[in-house]
Amino acid sequence: MRLAELVESVGGVVEPPALQRGDVEIDGVSLSSSSIDVGFLFAALPGHRTHGARFVSDAVSHGAAAILTDDFGREIIEAGGGAGVPVITVPDPRSALSHVASTLAGHPQDSISMVGITGTNGKTTVAHMVRAALEVNGVHCGVIGTLGSQFADRVSVPSARTTPEATDLFPILRTFKDAGAKAVVMEVSSIALCEHRVDGILFDSAVFTGLSHDHLDYHRDMEDYFAAKSRLFRPERARRGVVLVDDEWGARLAREARIPVTTVSARLSDDESNEGADWIVRRRGDELFLTGEMDVAFDVPISAGFAVANAALAIVTAHTVGVSLDVAAGAVSSATVPGRMELVSALGGIHFIVDYAHTPDAVEQVVRAAVAQCSRDSNRVIVVVGAGGDRDPHKRPGIGRAASLADITIITDDNPRSEDPQRIRSEVLAGTREGADVREVGSRREAIAGAVELALPGDVVLVLGKGHEATQERAEGLLAFDDRQVLAFFVGRRFGGGSREGVT
After folding, report:
1. DSSP for 100-139?
2. pLDDT beyond 60 at 440
3. What residues have CB less than 8 Å from 491, skipping those under 6 apart?
4. What sign does the CA torsion over 233, 234, 238, 241 have?
5. If one looks up domain 3-93 in CATH, what number appears?
6. Are 183 and 135 contacting, i.e. CB atoms less than 8 angstroms apart?
7. Residue 200: per-residue pLDDT
8. How confident is the model at residue 503 (pLDDT cuts 50, 70, 90)?
9. Are 54 and 78 in contact (CB under 8 A)?
10. Backbone angles phi, psi at 440, to 5 degrees
């Protein structure tokens, strides 16, 4: 891409004008000055701690051919004596960056069916279920999200973000396309929408899984959080939507969305309060049915509201992008997602489960489902949970309150990051219910070992918060730590047997 074409596409101003030469070729783009290669565009963006323009000299020394920034970034560059390469100034460099990254990748999203999923909980599960339905239908499908970027067994790219930066996202889409992908299902976070990472993508279907307390360290309040999610449901971003209307935010989005939406309700209530939805989940005896333009039976691994809602959303979403209802229901019913209600072992008559639940609402849903299952046989639920450091501290008491619905709750470390682990645990403990059996064990490994030793036949042990994650983030750095492997080790040590195949 020539510099003149880039400037024209983003409507920027080049300083100084003498450096606007059309024969400069831009071969790539990066947000990191250390990953710049010769001929790359360096995107010097405003950050949460500092401005990328402060790293321009480093980028130029690595071969940057031009700089993309905003007015403040240009002032920083000029104060430092200039860049020595063209500096393109635009009002919103993040949005411009997405369009540049898309152009350099050849706009791969335009020839792939795109599904975008947003919401607080359930994004990963719904994404992988939709992918499973598309694959069974013969549509080779990639998935991008919390578990990384995956396409068949040919492409697997880990990611530190739910939605990758535009500089990574569009090359991944191009790689998927070149490898034979005909569709991509991706998780779209509220932060990604605010930071314009998916600008330039017109999703064939946008999906809303619901909203609850999370990311309020980034967003001002729930209203701001909702407004960010709602951006996905605009004509410039999606052709149609699928919305779960079982909370106030979903019902509101269905009313206010600026694109056609299909509504789904999975309340399983007796008062028929979900009758206004296009698709409704009904229970007939021991079977679940999704009813709408026709009826279809489906199954879920655990009889809980969140699991039913995720499955229903996935079936309807797959149906909106061309999968027959019965094929979608069959694929979704058998789909599994790493770290999401993942059964690690059932030795000793005890169910040992790992789940990613890390918000008050998600923890409560998982614990309530397990309690309901165990209470029928007078068995117990034992929960191991913590809260992350350097993230939304306001949700910590809520996590404690939700987790203490269990018969035994062990509060431990999650990913403390740079914070004092003891302080985090104290804030979680402050929310636990009076009279509940709550214990504090700082070491996550010891907490999991203790839960395994406490469990009796018929009990359910839930290890929550980290799910698929293979590391623990502490002040001293990243430590190897996979809840599934640690849990499997202690189960095997106690019972002298192996865990579920594939975990150890």
Report:
1. HHHHHTT-GGGGSEEEEEESSSSHHHHHHHHHHHHHHTT-
2. yes
3. 344, 345, 347, 348, 352, 452, 497, 499
4. positive
5. 3.40.1390.10
6. no
7. 93
8. very low
9. no
10. -115, 125
User: Quick one: 271 exposed, middle or buried, by C-beta within 10 A (0-12, 13-18, 19+)?
Assistant: exposed
Task: Kindly give the pairing relationship between strand 205-208 and strand 241-244.
Answer: parallel
DSSP per residue over 432-468, as a string? SPTT--EEE-S-HHHHHHHHHHH--TT-EEEEES-TT
**What are the boundaries of each domain within the chain?**
3-93, 105-334, 342-495
pTM of whole model > 0.70? yes
Taking every pair of Cα atoms in the chain, the longest distance, rounded to a whole number of angstroms, is 80
pLDDT for 23 beyond 80: no
pLDDT band of 21, cuts 50, 70, 90: low
Domain spanning 342-495, CATH architecture: Alpha-Beta Complex (3.90)
Domain 105-334: homologous superfamily in CATH: Mur-like, catalytic domain (3.40.1190.10)
Average confidence (pLDDT) over 371-383: 87
Both tokens assigned to 47: 């950050």
- Say how many residues make up the chain: 504
Residue 407 to residues 16, 131, 145, 403, 494: CA-CA distances in angstroms?
68, 36, 33, 9, 21
Is the pLDDT at 11 greater than 90, yes or no?
A: no
Supply the pLDDT for residue 215.
52
Which residues 6+ apart lie within 8 Å of 417 measured at CB?
388, 389, 390, 391, 473, 474, 475
- Residue 239 and residue 395: Cα distance in Å, rounded? 34
115 half-sphere exposure, CB direction, 13 A CA radius? 31
